[in-house]
Design brief:
D-amino Acid Aminotransferase, Chain A, domain 1, DNA polymerase, domain 1, 37% helix, binds 2-(butylsulfanyl)adenosine
């Protein structure tokens, strides 16, 4: 090889190495070399180019923009959590959303106004102004705690640094979406998969100068804390902040009915490709802020808003194979391995077939030409088969009746419908290696232990190498085994150690959710944590006799029903499960459950409702109690402090029993007085 070819070869190798490290940083959030090693690699490339004109012409480094995002930003707790939105995919979902709102507010055909706004596909950030001066700028982070990225946000010229205006609240928190325009993205593409990744990478640059090189833009869409609160509607808020110099999306509009929602949806869908930013749907928000306050939030998302996603992108491809996957609850899901095809900008090679019934109903077979679709972040799915393209010797697909672990599978009978479930399951729990691995993935996920650097892929890798097989193994990892693995370096190991150490301190409700008991999601985990208060009390479930007594009490909890109780019982009846959980508990410091808002009107009080109210639904009454520090019970016992009796059809038996037990009875009118309504 002549000298020039040798240099080109070295140069290409270094470029490829840089790309690899960028991928670890940007896409996997798992840097494998230190910042200084990264910088020297960049410098070597730069020097090679400087000294060899022919390399400059190859222009390879220009395509690689920016430094890796840093993990070193200061963590700051949000003044108010930054929640996410639930999704709607069709007219029916929107209909459900509107009726749920009406039910919650106990409205009968009352007209509700919605603010319709494009859902910008970027990165959310929040800006805090104290007496009109921008003093803080945070990323969303995990929703509760963000990162201080103020200096980077300040590089966006169009973000006001100082605002003037009459009536300016002394504390003003503006939330918005940071994005990169489509045209700008095409010029800087480099190693980013899409504009959203590029915006995220840019915002997390350590050096704001790097951020300023990437043309970021933003739209303001909402608020966190405002003191004093001066707005009555979302529309009023948007137009006022526009007058203060913020950029708001020009396609925002007030709509009044489901029909108008549909028209607006179709209109924006039809023009979206002409916009200079990616949008993946429209956000619909109840316009009246008082109603928003009444509606409040569930654990992750507001009841007053929804993201109505655009219809799924579709493509045609061929099924190469059908395999089964086992989920953490033992559900067996068939997956079609398809010839890779691009659907809405993403290459798809797997599509879900849902369950056995679905395969039979659609008569889906290996070798079939099928239409697949992908909507938002949802797993792509097979929609239909093109029978005209079917090979005449194709065979009907026979669904396996065994789990990948070899164990038998069966379909349960649904308790409420008394019908056979569509889903086939393996019931071996941790004894099935496939379920055990998925349980681990759940345990480390964001809403559970939230361990950075220990994502699904890493769990797969560590499982195969037998580094982690049970939850407690996470806390006794042999890091020497990882050191020499492809993709792992000193820095990423240090980061992983830190993240694991941090996760050892965990709240009781998060812990209960993490354990992965079927039918115990985040909401139920909170209810249970509120009941047990401490891990010591929760652990009593592991002892057979105690368990029986405790389970009887759980039915009193509003939200916990027979299905949940049976599931807890099943889970705790397995010695293997108990052993695994006890070993895990040994490694942790599990904080006692903190009741939010202890000082509220109903602090340490238990309430129950019977009958319907005129001014509010049962759900609203329940959320009012909880937001004021109280607990709602599902049955009458000595533990009950107050029975609230609505005017509409109260149960006489309940009222009589409450009287017998000397429980305080509050009538509907008094109830409104207590609430200052
Ligand atoms: S309102 C409680 N409005 O979508 C959350 N969000 O999935 C209220 N987003 O994190 C969010 N455009 O980053 C809202 N016009 C818009 C939005 C918008 C984009 C993002 C935002 C949020 C995510 C929710």
């Amino acid at each position: 090889m002549n000298q020039k070819l040798k240099v080109i070869d070295i140069y290409r190798k270094k470029i490829n190495l840089l790309k690899k490290h960028n991928k670890s940083y940007f896409d996997n959030d798992n840097p494998t070399i230190s910042d200084s090693e990264y910088d020297s690699l960049k410098k070597e490339i730069f020097n090679l180019e400087k000294n060899n004109d022919y390399l400059k012409k190859l222009n390879l480094s220009k395509k690689i923009i920016g430094s890796p995002p840093s993990n070193k930003f200061k963590k700051v707790k949000h003044l108010k959590p930054m929640l996410s939105l639930s999704n709607a995919f069709d007219k029916k979902d929107m209909n459900d959303f509107v009726s749920k709102i009406n039910n919650f507010l106990n409205f009968k055909n009352q007209n509700i106004e919605f603010s319709s706004e494009p859902k910008i596909d970027g990165i959310s950030a929040t800006l805090i102004y104290e007496n009109g001066v921008l003093t803080k700028g945070l990323s969303r982070g995990d929703g509760a705690t963000g990162e201080d990225i103020l200096e980077n946000l300040k590089t966006i010229n169009t973000i006001p640094k100082k605002i003037k205006g009459n009536n300016l609240p002394s504390l003003l928190e503006i939330r918005g979406e940071i994005y990169i325009g489509k045209k700008d993205f095409n010029n800087i593409k480099g190693n980013f998969a899409n504009p959203r990744n590029a915006a995220g990478g840019s915002l997390r640059q350590k050096n704001p100068k790097e951020t300023s090189k990437i043309p970021l833009k933003y739209f303001a869409y909402g608020f966190g804390v405002i003191e004093p609160m001066i707005f009555n509607t979302q529309k009023e808020f948007l137009s006022k902040i526009k007058s203060w110099g913020f950029l708001i999306n020009p396609l925002s509009k007030i709509v009044n009915s489901l029909d108008e929602i549909e028209i607006q949806h179709q209109y924006i869908d039809s023009i979206k490709s002409s916009l200079d930013y990616d949008i993946d749907g429209l956000v619909y928000k109840v316009n009246d802020l008082k109603l928003q306050l009444r509606l409040g939030n569930t654990s992750n998302s507001p009841r007053w808003a929804i993201a109505y996603k655009f219809s799924a992108e579709k493509a045609v491809t061929k099924i190469k194979d059908i395999v089964i996957q086992v989920g953490r609850t033992g559900a067996i899901t068939p997956v079609a391995k398809v010839e890779p095809v691009t659907v809405g900008g993403v290459v798809v090679s797997n599509a879900t077939l849902h369950n056995e019934d679905e395969i039979n109903r659609k008569d889906i077979r290996i070798g079939d030409t099928v239409k697949i679709q992908r909507a938002g972040d949802v797993i792509p799915q097979v929609v239909s088969v093109d029978f005209s393209k079917r090979n005449h010797n194709s065979k009907k697909y026979i669904f396996p009746n065994k789990c990948l672990c070899g164990g038998a599978t069966h379909k349960e009978i649904n308790k409420s419908t008394k019908k056979e479930d569509a889903v086939r399951r393996c019931f071996k729990g941790y004894d099935c290696n496939y379920i055990a691995r998925e349980k681990l993935k759940h345990l480390v996920s964001k809403d559970a232990f939230n361990i950075d650097g220990l994502g699904k892929k890493v769990i797969d890798q560590f499982w195969d190498l037998k580094i982690i097989r049970e939850p407690s193994d996470i806390f006794t990892i042999n890091y020497n085994k990882i050191q020499n693995l492809e993709g792992w370096g000193k820095l990423s190991i240090d980061n992983l150690k830190k993240a694991i150490e941090k996760s050892k301190i965990i709240e009781l409700d998060r812990f209960i959710f993490s354990v992965g008991i079927r039918h115990i999601g985040q909401e139920n985990a909170k209810i249970l944590a509120g009941f047990f208060q401490s891990i010591e009390k929760f652990s009593k479930l592991f002892e057979k006799n105690d368990r029986k007594k405790i389970l009887k009490h759980l039915i009193d909890l509003d939200g916990i029903g027979e299905i949940q109780i049976e599931s807890i019982n099943n889970f705790c009846s397995s010695d293997k499960n108990i052993n695994i959980i006890e070993q895990l508990i040994d490694k942790l410091k599990i904080n006692n459950f903190k009741t939010r808002n202890k000082k509220g009107k109903f602090s340490n009080k238990t309430l129950m409702f019977t009958g319907g109210f005129d001014k509010m639904s049962r759900s609203e009454a329940k959320s009012l109690v909880e937001n004021n520090g109280g607990k709602v019970l599902g049955s009458i016992s000595k533990k009950l402090n107050i029975l609230v009796v609505g005017n509409s059809k109260p149960t006489k038996k309940k009222v009589d029993l409450a009287k017998q037990l000397n429980i305080k009875i509050v009538k509907e009118n008094e109830w409104y007085k207590i609430l200052d309504l």
